[in-house]
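Fold this sequence, please.
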Amino acid sequence: MKELAVAYSDEKGQEIKLTASDIVEYISTDSSVTEKEVVQFLNMCNYLKLNPFLKEIYLIKYKDSPATFVISYQTLLKRAEENKNFDGYETEVKGEIPNMTATAIVYRKDRSYPVKITVNYREAVKTTMDRQTRELKPTNMWKNMPEWMLRKVALARALKEAFPSAVGNAEVSVSEIVDIDTMDKTVKERRKNYKGDVNKDLYGIETSSMKAKPEEVKTEEVKTEPNPEDPESPELVSGSGQAPKLKLYELLKKKNITKLSSIKEILKSVFPNTNFDKAGKYVFENMPDDRIRKVIEYLKETKE
């Protein structure tokens, strides 16, 4: 790989210099990242003035899938609040699992109508596959703080739509520290003459709990590769919103296909022109939906 480099200053004036070798060795989750992906990542860091060493932006790479650029939730929130047209936001969580919904409304001073996004639990929840039962269960953050996590997903989507230039076309990670947002108009309104813990009553999170405890590594859960939703907590993750992938996992479980060698044989049959010899057990993570659908079709046509 060519020795590429970019130099720029972040919003605080701090000089940042990134090289291709830095990205491959320290930033990317896998060394198989291509030169083209490194160049794209360097350019995005430069354009958005973000520092990957401060975990403002991540490069998530799996051997058999394209790289994904992920912006931290806090970076998105900070960028929005610093925009001169930012005028606050409101959030609301309704219902119980699995019919729970979260709505976020973001206001801009230069627009007549706010951006309003509603997200349902089934669409947003992140799950991890239990090694013993092969069942998909909510990750620790989603299990312990579903209202808060769903709220953050809705708010991230609304902020990104209201301020599209803040993070470009990068994805947004929401599985981070638990934060109490002072710019939330709903929270500010509830605080007026309110007796009790408004954050606990509104979102189920006590104000004193400003940070979530690190997720514990459980022996029954697969924890061997990075999760693009939370680069610091590696785990096999699939979102319920990713219907094709979820269907594939369920189909593999139904057919009792758990060995990597069996999965490789299936992939070789579906994609004969692709080499899967070096594929890992998480080959389906970040695999495009159209390819996953082809695998599903093949499995459905195959006899039990």
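The longest helix spans residues 146-162. Residues 242-301 form one domain.
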